[in-house]
Specification:
14 helices
Length: 287
Amino acid sequence: MSAVVEETAAGRRPRWTPGRLAMLGCALLLALLWVLPLAWALATSLKPESETTETGLQWIGSRLTLDAYRAVWESGDLTRWMLNTAYIASVTTVLTVALTAMAAYGFSRTEFRGRRVLYGLVLAGIMVPPQVLIAPLFAEMVSLGLVDTYWGVILPQVAVPAMVFILVKFFEGVPRELEEAAYVDGAGRWRVFWQIVLPLSRPVLAAVAIFTFIQTWNNFLWPFLVTTDPNGMTLPVGLVNVQSTYGVRYAQVMASVIIGGLPLLVVFAFFQRQIVRGVAHTGLAGQ
């Protein structure tokens, strides 16, 4: 191991040991398992609808066609649904990052009565399946008159205990000496949090924001239950409604999958470095 480190430090390429080759093979296998379903969905969406139910494995149809994408686009208001989803995901992401950052900083830096109990309840929320809370949340949205509104979709998704835990782990690694020096200079707690802690937390905050955005964009169950107006639907809900209206058409189903997932692939392609850096900075990568 020391020889490999020395060669790397000297500018040479590390040697391809059997263990390194085995890890590379496993990574390539996992990548192939991830790409194959996506490639099959793309290939199916480009087939004529009549050829999607033929028996036998056939990747390419008799001709490549965009009829499925055209049919999905014309049968629903995809532009509005995309804008709705982008707005809901953006607002949810901003609120989630702000609230979880303040909560995590409070748990990691302040001492108050009941702190351990309250933090334990937050951690317990990680183990509660979201489906368990659907009935009381829906009743609450009805009583508040928030059904078929953006806020009715956004607010229940803002409380994310897992993100509080991740940020607490990061804040506990921030040197307290930096904050103590700011206190000596006369800074208050809010100024320390805003001008010292948050700038140091940009990688992990970026990761939390990206994870939240992706999760909100993909969320189907809650928007499906709380939204009945077609003009207020999110993209996953709208695409499912289009599919159920016209029956099971596999090319159109796969086209809907590609349309719904393409924006997230673009987001991940642009921000994958921030995601990796954020996970590394939380200290969770090796756990």
